[in-house]
Design goal:
Elements lengths: L2 H11 L1 H8 L26 E3 L6 E4 L4 E7 L9 E7 L8 E2 L5 E7 L2 E5 L2 E5 L4 E4 L5 E5 L4 E7 L8 H4 E3 L16 H9 L5 E2 L9 E2 L14 E3 L7 E3 L2 E7 L9 E8 L27 E2 L4 E7 L1 E6 L7 E4 L3 E4 L5 E5 L3 E8 L5 H8 L1 E2 L16 H10 L3 E2 L1
Parallel strand pairs: 8-14
Antiparallel strand pairs: 1-23, 2-3, 2-12, 3-4, 4-11, 5-13, 6-9, 6-11, 7-8, 7-10, 9-15, 16-17, 16-26, 17-18, 18-25, 19-27, 20-23, 20-25, 21-22, 21-24
């Protein structure tokens, strides 16, 4: 490894110690909470945690004008996946390449971005999604003045690539908008020579970009590359909640899944809403205070509203999680959640074997085009069917 790459790698390795030296004593939190201290790194392996908005280990890719934060890494997911949240300015396209073994994804959260997949290119807006399986030639480009996107990458250890071309970033929660250093091409080449799973495609003919279409509303039955327009895909309903899969186990060789879960609060808090469940115990797959214990790792990131989580082996009390915050539930930990605002949405990331999204797909009702959560017909659920599905997934209800 070159001296420059060694310096960057060493800097990343010493990142947690550097943080400890600059954080005030007030950064500590009580042991009775799942919430991690300010700017925690590394994340705790095999333990549940709550990561607050724009917290966690943060790096910038040299020359990119972007910052990336890890919501989960290979260590927390047994290398099944890593989840990276990126804030970025408009920039040049990342050069076309493919991965021999790594599955990449792009979920636009704010602003817009181009994503190239083989002979197709789309302009993604908030909520639009692109799945990039191994051997798919791809590139991407942030377009707006302020952009956000989330990527779930499998295997999670692929993020070691960032050790070559990235460095710790502790200046602010936002990105370095005036970054003017060149992209470190020599370090990029060195990473490839070291065996990192990136194969450049210098002769790639970048196809013309097209806007997303409402016809891009289905998930394939295999690992074919695809685009999915926001709010246009399949949706499954279960007791005042809905689940909209963006990618399922069948699309990722059973490595991970990603969906959007939406729900309304319970009637004991919002009595005017007649479509609401009578109490939190009747929301989604949870009844009579029961919890789910799934065989897959799960991470929940709240998009809007408030959600209360109760995780086995976690906090002494429920953790109320709000916009931009994430909850990690390791495989085998029983948990439940309840919508505590009038309405809430959250991303659900699941690992090998299928997670909460499969409970909705198999035990829920497939929705009609344009249907949203809140129909009276979904006020109850067949508990025995949920039990059967959870058991088939290798989990249990406790």
């Amino acid at each position: 490894m070159s001296p420059i790459a060694t310096d960057i790698s060493s800097s990343l390795a010493s990142f947690p110690a550097k943080l400890a030296s600059v954080l005030p004593a007030s950064a500590s939190v009580p042991t009775s909470t799942l919430r991690l201290p300010h700017f925690s790194a590394p994340l705790p392996a095999n333990k549940p945690y709550v990561l607050e908005s724009d917290e966690g280990e943060t790096i910038t890719l040299v020359g990119s004008g972007s910052v990336m934060r890890y919501l989960a890494t290979a260590k927390e997911t047994d290398d099944q996946f890593a989840i990276v949240h990126t804030r970025a300015r408009a920039d040049e396209p990342v050069p076309a390449h493919f991965h021999a073994r790594t599955h990449d994804t792009f979920l636009c959260v704010r602003g817009s971005m181009k994503v190239w997949e083989n002979d197709q290119c789309r302009i993604l807006g908030p909520g639009d999604f692109a799945s990039v399986p191994p051997k798919c030639v791809h590139a991407f480009q942030p377009l707006g003045p302020e952009n956000e996107f989330i990527g779930i990458i499998s295997p999670g250890s692929w993020t070691k690539m960032f050790n070559y071309i990235g460095e710790p970033y502790m200046t602010s929660p936002t990105f370095p908008w005036n970054e003017d250093r060149p992209f470190p091409v020599p370090l990029f080449i060195e990473a490839i020579k070291a065996g990192e799973d990136v194969i450049p495609q210098r002769e790639y003919a970048y196809p013309e970009a097209k806007p997303m279409s409402e016809d891009e509303n289905t998930l394939p039955n295999d690992t074919t590359p695809y685009f999915l327009k926001a709010d246009c895909g399949p949706k499954y309903f279960l007791a005042t909640q809905s689940c909209s899969p963006l990618t399922l186990a069948r699309n990722t060789n059973d490595h991970f899944a990603l969906s959007v879960l939406a729900g309304i609060g319970s009637r004991d808090r919002f009595p005017a809403y007649t479509a609401a469940a009578e109490s939190p115990a009747g929301q989604g797959p949870f009844h009579s205070g029961r919890k789910l214990r799934l065989a897959s790792h799960s991470l929940f990131r709240v998009i809007e509203g408030k959600v209360a989580f109760d995780v086995e082996g976690g906090a002494d009390t429920e953790e109320v999680v709000t916009t931009g915050e994430s909850v990690m539930v390791p495989a085998g930990r029983a948990f439940s959640y309840a919508i505590t605002s009038a309405y809430a949405r959250m991303y659900v990331f699941s690992g090998k074997g299928g997670g909460l999204e499969e409970v909705f797909v198999r035990a829920g009702r497939e929705g009609k085009s344009g249907e949203v959560v809140g129909g009276h017909e979904d006020a109850s659920v067949e508990e025995s069917k949920v039990d059967e599905v959870v058991k088939a997934l290798g989990g249990e209800i406790v």
